[in-house]
């Protein structure tokens, strides 16, 4: 479940196949990764940097931002990653991840949560016309009306705006 850096260094400039499976724990308030995350592609070591050209497959579960039901997203995308060695106080030449020169393996585990999160919708909907929850009783309005919404007048401070819409 890690890329062998020693093997990459020995094969400087040559592509090495990557076929890894990771179990990823994401912060539950954001999303949940269902099952394993599959990473397949190739890695190349050049001039102390490691370049990965990989395809990532995962299934993530989020909550609908209106009604809180589960929204399942099957993700399948290609990612190009660059890892540069950590060096004391030196800035990286360009945006890249880092690894220690003493490391013998490179695990993608710590990076996968961010990569998966970047592929997900920040405001997921279970369907485009999701009606959300009733603000009074919390009933899922996608399942039918609850009866209290027509009787609920809403925030009295907004009555002036309602009058303008008539």
Low-pLDDT runs of 5+ residues are none
Order of helices and strands: EHEEEEEEHH
What is the structural class? alpha+beta
Mean pLDDT score: 87
Calculate the terminal CA-CA distance, rounded to whole Å: 63 Å
Description:
- By secondary structure, the chain is an alpha+beta fold.
- The protein folds into two domains: 3-130, no CATH class; 131-166, no CATH class.
- It is 14% helix and 36% strand.
- It has three helices and seven strands; from the N terminus they run βαββββββαα.
- The strands form two sheets. The protein has a five-stranded mixed beta sheet. A two-stranded antiparallel sheet has the order 1-7.
- Strand 4 (49-63) and strand 5 (70-85) form a beta hairpin.
- The longest helix is centred in the last third of the chain and has 11 residues, at 109-119.
- The mean pLDDT is 87.
Secondary-structure blueprint:
Elements: E1 3-4, H1 5-10, E2 16-22, E3 32-46, E4 49-63, E5 70-85, E6 97-99, E7 105-106, H2 109-119, H3 159-165
Characteristics:
5-stranded mixed β-sheet, 14% helix, 3 helices, alpha+beta, elongated, 2 domains, 166 residues
Summarize it.
The chain has 166 residues and is an alpha+beta fold.
């Amino acid at each position: 479940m890690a890329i062998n850096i020693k093997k990459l260094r020995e094969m400087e400039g040559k592509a090495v196949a990557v076929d890894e499976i990771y179990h990823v724990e994401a912060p539950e308030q954001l999303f949940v990764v269902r099952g394993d995350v599959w990473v397949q592609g190739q890695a190349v070591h050049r001039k102390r940097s490691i370049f990965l050209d990989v395809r990532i497959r995962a299934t993530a579960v989020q909550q609908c931002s209106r009604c809180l039901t589960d929204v399942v997203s099957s993700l399948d995308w290609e990612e190009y990653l660059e890892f540069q060695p950590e060096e004391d106080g030196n800035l990286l030449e360009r945006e890249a991840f880092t690894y220690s020169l003493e490391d013998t393996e490179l695990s993608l585990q710590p990076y996968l949560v961010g990569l998966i999160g970047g592929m997900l919708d920040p405001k997921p909907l279970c369907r485009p016309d999701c009606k959300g929850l009733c603000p009074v009783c919390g009933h899922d309005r996608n399942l039918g009306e609850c009866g209290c919404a027509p009787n609920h007048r809403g925030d009295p401070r907004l009555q002036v705006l309602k009058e303008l819409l008539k």
